[in-house]
User: Fold these one by one.
Assistant:
Number 1:
Amino acid sequence: MYGSLDISVSGMTAQRTRLEAIAANIANADAIVDPAGDPNPFRRRMVHLAPGDPTSNTLAGRAGGVHVADIELDDAPFRRVYDPTNQFAFPEGHPEAGYVLYPNIDPMIEQVNALEAARAYEANIAAAEATKTMLGQALRILG
Amino acid sequence: MFIRELATADALPSLEATVRFASQRQQILAHNISNIDTPDFVQKDVAPGEFQEFLSAAVDRRRERWGGHRGEMEWRQTRAIRSDDHGGFRLEPVEARQGLMFHDRNNRDVERLMQDMVENVAQHRVATELLRSRYSLLGTAIAGRI
């Protein structure tokens, strides 16, 4: 039964990681420079999930559950916004002169992904609550 | 031997098997729920109907062998329920090809999963409550007074 709890907790952890990546994407939706101050727009982070959880304490938890396999950078092209007054706009003579590169993040997509991650988190909580109920019932056999 | 007879009398083995089935199935359902967003993941399950057939076949065999409602259960494996080395059984879930296939090639059906979980918890509760009352009856009988 503890394997079931491990599995549900791995699901919650994975969805929370997903939500953190989504929050980072939304927060950086307009970040056109990197921490060093160079013009390097923030690339969207994508979280990839895979079955199994190598960090689990139980054998069942390692075989079951889910874990974050990879956090990949989205290689979709950056958004182009025409703003010749911006210091980071492409200079005259450049094929895209006057354009500024913005992160490839669509807040609408991130909002929907966040909703889905939150619902999946709730579903895992429901599964954990059901397991806890069954544990309590099993203990009551003793009287 | 007397204790062994007590522990395998009447419905006790069936109820213990039901509790064990519900516990193992809870693990399978938790695994399905934790992977509702995993690409290429196919939901797997063991149908409760298959367990009912597995159990009733074992009860019939016990009745034929021991001529009543006593004796050890003899499990005979089915497609998704296998015997283990300790005289018990373990579940090996099979792919449940129900529900829509989404773009990430995951055939999740959250509503069905939740329903399965509620029914599984209810089955576990019924079996544990009946087990508790049986053990309590045994205790009363052993004590020799009400």
Number 2:
Amino acid sequence: MMSNPIRVLHVGDVHLGVELYGRPDAEKGYGTRVSDFLQALDRALELAEDVDLVLFPGDIYKNCDPNPTVQREFASRIRRIGRQVPVVVIPGNHDVPNAFARASSVDIFHVLELDNVHVLRRPEVTPVRTRWGEVLIAPLPFMPRSRLLSLEEARGKSLPEVLEMMRSRLVEAVNLMAEEIGEYRQAHGERVPAILMAHYTISGATFGGYGKGALLAPEIELPLGTVRNPAFDYVALAHIHKHQTIPPNDFTGQPPVIYPGSIERVDFGEEDEDKVVVLAEVTRGHTSWKAVPLHPRKFLTLRIEADEVDPLESIKSKIEAKKSQIQGAVVRVFYTLPPGAPNPPEREIRQALEGAHYIAAIRRENVRPEARSRHGGLTTQLGPLEALEEYLRTQPQLQDLREELIERAKPLIEEIASRE
Amino acid sequence: MSSFDPFEEIPAASPGDLLSPQTQADLPVGSAGESLGVIVRGSLSKGLDLKLDPGVSLETLRAGMFAVAGGEMFDFFSLVTDLELTATNPEAVDAPPPAPGSLLRQVLAGDSLYTRAMLRPHLMVNRAEPDAKKALLPVKTIPGHFTVVRRATPEDVNRVFGSEEQSPYHFHIGEPLEMDEIPVCLNLEAFAERSNGIFGKSGTGKTFLTRLMLCGLVHKNAGVNLIFDMHGEYGWRGTDEGRPGGSTKGLRELYPDRVQVFTLDPRPTVKYDREIRIPYSFLEPEDILSLQKVIGLTSTSAENSYLLQRRFGRHWFARTLDMDTKEVAEEEDAHQGAMQALRRKLGRLQKECSGFLWPDERVVEDAIPLVLRNLEQGIHTVIDFGRYSQLIHYILVANILTRRIDEQWREKSEQHFSDPDRHPRPPRLVITIEEAHKFLEPGIAEQTIFGRIARELRKYNVTLLVVDQRPSQIQKEVLSQLGTKFCCLLDDESDVEAVLAGTSGSGGLRSVLASLDTRQQALVFGHALPMPVVVKTRSYDEQFWKTVGYLPPEERSARAREDRKRLWD
């Protein structure tokens, strides 16, 4: 019996509640983008029919206060799946509130004690029963920095020291679980497979278009050597939206260390990324896996060098050439025109984009946008506020608004930072 | 005056006194603070002559031990550099008295015959100055005739070298000679500020000493380490030469969360965290230059690689392997023989390094940025060479990696200097290299990255920890830039000479160096210490590990268990 592989469905960041680039849908009570994410989730869960275990390593929702409608949608799915196969969820950074006592957005499933749905909130090895026997889950949920700061020994430490301490504690947590798995195997049999689920960045991971946000507070990175511990037979990760293995393109390494990536595109940065979930067959000592595509909503950026004589016509013809790709896509159009030439009417460009799911932007670029984003002073070394200031310094047309923009940005940045 | 004084009237001694001369201050023979005798001669340039009291047993003195001459205003901290038997009346030694222990022998001892110790003062301590730091002064004068000299006390050692409690960077490296359990501390912050050297012939404990210092740097957060670990001594496990087949803990085992091992030779028998593959295009002509001796190229041939890089661009190495040598030589107007030799040697290089030096398209993960990121985040990194432990591999990889680091640290430092508020300074980086003379010998040091770092990179917060058995082969300028030097026993006269060059009082230190034990003893001097000192270095053992932050696995587990309650619930 034990030699049967455990078939695992590993779903990455679900991020229900993202409304960006969507239209409201009164009938459903949530926007079209939420529908996109739910559909992607449904496609993923179709695969659950043929597996023995479903894993969600964090970031179920967009934030720790998901609206009741979105919660209902996820809850009903989780309940349904839970009737067929065990489901394991750990909280991710978007799920965990900063305040100590507040519940995370996934705690509710824990409280309801849904059969077969395991919400694991602390790094403690948990045996989960599947139809092919037990599998050990070692969960490493996201821990907000504020919690570490509440410790006596963190007082008065500098930021790098706190990060150091955080990494050290996380590494210890993983090592302890590996040790406990060893003990468990001694008592219950060496063939019991084990899975590490973690919501962290592993050193060497590449960020996709989304979440390049190195502008935010510095991230903890866990060494690959820590998670690729031979005690584990599979390492199920979430947090990074781009699907990848660590190290890259490592299709045979054991245990596999995998981010499936987010199930839907969140932003244009992910335009070229495939969205997948991972199906793995886990046995003690050897795991094979494959990525299953999810067909997410298309995102498309059109960069057009408009013709000076008849700019509208040239833009329209370029759009026409991409007609099939535009259908159902979230689209943005950047065009360039020599200085002095008047803007073509936006309304007509919109018409030409008919069939797009959503038009995110139609913008005239004086400089090629890539050139601008590569402004030398803007580096990942800057904090968000500094980056804004640096940007404003290079934008003479915004000088009058400078003070006000900074004032308004401050609370927003603080809010985001505190959420991290 | 409490000591022997030839001008003082000597009270008539009872026969009993003669048989067992009274030593000073009722201290047992050889103990700390015991008075040794008085200064009878000396000069600022050559040091002091100490006439030993008759009761002092010569055999309790050692070259390299501390003695303190208590002058009128200053205490002169000195090292014993030499010992001598001498006689006021040469005839006394011409006719040796009979049996040992005879009365005649005792009569002669301390009168016609006496013993001398040569002292080299290295520090003056102003007794009137309450601020311990300000009280320490370089030696600019000497104490007068008949100044009493005593053995150093624990308080003396403490006053000079401080204690671990004194600052977060004071690190206990060992004990002075003949003074067990008195810690000698070194200031690790000052240490990491400059490049340093650990020297000694093979088998003298260089590797243990290096481990000791690396642990100090990790534990005290004085710098982040990059270690080019040629023989697999610093990563997970290291060898313990003291025991046949013995092994000891490496840094990765001591600090599982702060140290990572990158390997060039992934193999099932050894634990590591990550593999390194280097694409061909990372090679630079500079690497060939530093390898010229190892692969046997003339400098003309080696310099042709610049020409090839100009011709072929970034992928010059790959293209050189495939080129038509004759055609290229003709077109470039280069010497065909030299070009052929270069082509052949590059072929050999490629073959010897084929385990980790790969064509660009085969390398899926560029591990070098990961190493850099690690270092930036303060994760100490050990580069494990495995079976690629020949010089050709070592020099090549160390060069390539270090060049990248150099670029990045320079850039970040420049950013920091131009706008310190916005750009934090990159962390202090200490690069450990073994067989350092191969990187730093004259003719190579001028042209390669390591020579550059040794000479100037201190400014960019990168320093070297040079481990070597042949310091005489290292370029003089580089050697003179080393801030602090640890010298275990060196046999070769030229090595001794090289290590001590430019050090004040080197004459005295030479004899000290020559009389070191073969193991676990080192003469330490330079920037991070107020004066030279001979130490019995700490043992690299369980007790040491505990003091440098090692938590045994069961304690780590216990803490992690505790954390579950404190952090996660």
